[in-house]
Amino acid sequence: MPDWMDADLSRERAAERQAKKDGGPTGKIQDSIKLFGSDIRDSGAMIGVNSLLWRASLDTISFMPLEEADPYGGIIMTEWYNNPNNPEERYKITIYILDTRLRADAVRVSVFMQQNLNGEWINISTSEDTRLQLENSILTKARQMKQE
Fold it and tell me: Contact at 8 Å (CB) between 114 and 64?
């Protein structure tokens, strides 16, 4: 019979686990050494970044199609978005959320722009002001969400 089906062995293991949690001795030297953190298991998946900044970022660029959104790594990337007012331009945005706290330096935005010249998309530099406006918009929206 496999060990996991043995009720007596299961009770012994449960008692050992409880003794570890209570801080009591278990009789094995290995039980007192923690190489990779605590014995307490993760109670559930948690977002790895500030949730207000995450939601505010998604709201700010909601008009653009998403390519990738990783809440654990804190990266939001859009696909290329064609400006309806100027179909010869397209934009791509990458947002990095760098902290779990709501701070001005916890969000970074990269804006990429291309222009269609004779059927070929050419990279065009964007102004620093565009990037800062997006960052400020995200921060303002996150602060408003916090107050609600």
Answer: no
Q: d(Cα 134, Cα 143) in Å, to the nearest integer?
A: 14
Residue range 133-143, pLDDT digits in tens? 999 999 999 99
pLDDT digits (tens, 9 = 90+) for 44-79: 456 678 999 999 999 999 999 999 999 989 999 999
Length of the chain: 148
pTM of the model: 0.68
What the block records as the tokens of 108 is 């970074």
The answer for residues whose C-beta is within 8 angstroms of residue 145's C-beta and 6 or more apart is 52, 55, 56
Radius of gyration of the chain (CA): 25
Classify domain 51-147 by CATH architecture: Roll (3.10)
Distance CA 10, CA 13 (A): 5
